[in-house]
Amino acid sequence: MKPNTEKRQLKLAAVIIIVVAFTIIVLNTLQILFIATNIRKTSTKSYEEECSEITLAYAELMAAKVSEYYSLLYTYTNSDIARTGTDAQIVAWLQNNASIRPKDFDYVAYVDAKGNFDSDKKSHTTVKDRGYFKEIMELGWETTVDNPVTSKTTGKTVIHVCRALKRNGKTIGFFCAVMEMHTFNNMVSGIKLGDTGIGVLITQDGKIISTSGNPEIVENDLAAINNDKRAMEIVEKHSRENPNELFSFWVKNSRGSESLTISKNVRGTPWVFSFLIDKRQVQEASNILRRQMVITSALVMLIISTIVGLIVFVFLKPLNVVQTTIRGIAKGDADLTKRISINTKIKSEISDVVEGFNDFTEKMQEIMKELKSSKNELVSSGKSLDEVTQSTTSAIIQITANIKSVTNGMDQQATSVTQTA
């Protein structure tokens, strides 16, 4: 019987532990999903804000640098010779005063209305086919800078920063500062955020000018953007409606993940500065937290299940004592002097049952004592009654004998009287 009882108790304990563990798992799973989702949203929003600030800051920094270059050309356009001299005089003055050239410029050239390009290094070429010539001389722009091109003079990749020379409101030519992209390359190359956050300076048609990432990977990512219909719709809408504002979107990259892309046109240039960061990095914090919460929840479940198991064991142990004692009383000689004793200071329903059972047994014992005492008195009274009964019976027999004797005497007297008569 005892092994079966222990099995039932173990089964009960196992059921309780399983129910508690399952409840903890369900609640923790819901908690993890809720917290991880909120943290992911918060983390994503935080990254978007931070990356937007980076994009805006660098785009404005580049725009300020280009604006500085435009300002440096005032030295040339505001000179006396530029205001009054002929094209030939301007070229001669430029070449004779090469020392005034700012250090950021590789060389400075004067371009006349026919497209003759004469530098302060005494080199000559024609640039009538260049975009910056058309923008200044045909479209009437005050300033312009082009996308990096191969210089006709040096063969290096350079940009041309141009400012128009006007007389009486008419553009007669322009000064053009030529430089390599070192300054902008240095700006972009230092842009890093974590493992995947990079900066890239591109032309408006999507060609890379400079990047802080792997050029091949960046080129593949830009190709993925160009092939994404939704992303291109955002770019085109931005170009039409808000060309001077930030714009952003999520797009699949060349590595099978997604990238957050935030871009801004560099004011005063045909360039776009973009900041790209992989979704895995953006969500890394929430993923780490989720893993930590899973591990913590598993430990909490293990600890709580162990504690519950110990509590069940502690509470079931007195129940074993109760059961054994009751069975002992029920069998054998029904010894009512037995009491249940449990070694626990914990006040529980089981201890209340034990106290009640002990009180009940004590009451039964008192009743049995009273019954035993009453039985002895009844036996004694029975013996006395038997003695009285026997004495009474003897007296009745004696009386009956005396009556018979009297009767016999009376019969003899009657006979004597009859005979006498």
- Strand portion: 15-25%
Mean pLDDT: 82
Distance between the termini: 101 Å
Structural class: alpha+beta
How big is the Rg?
Answer: 57 Å
Identify low-pLDDT runs. none
Shape: rod-shaped
The helix count comes to 11
Main pleated sheet: 7 strands, antiparallel
The helix fraction, in percent, is 55-70%
Order of helical and strand elements: HHHHEEEHEEEEHEEEHHEEEHHH
Number of strands: 13
What's the short story on this structure?
The protein has 421 residues and is an alpha+beta fold.
What does it look like?
There is one protein chain. The chain has 421 residues and is of the alpha+beta class. 60% of the residues lie in helices and 18% in strands. Helix 1 packs antiparallel against helix 10 (284-330). The longest helix has 72 residues, at 349-420. The model has no long low-confidence stretch (mean pLDDT 82).
Notable characteristics:
single chain; 421 residues; alpha+beta; 7-stranded antiparallel β-sheet; 6-stranded antiparallel β-sheet; 60% helix
Annotate the secondary structure layout.
Elements lengths: L1 H71 L1 H4 L2 H5 L2 H10 L10 E6 L3 E4 L4 E3 L4 H8 L4 E3 L3 E2 L6 E11 L2 E10 L2 H8 L2 E2 L3 E7 L4 E4 L3 H12 L2 H13 L5 E6 L5 E8 L5 E8 H4 L1 H47 L18 H72 L1
Antiparallel strand pairs: 1-2, 1-7, 2-3, 4-6, 5-6, 6-7, 8-9, 9-10, 9-13, 11-12, 12-13
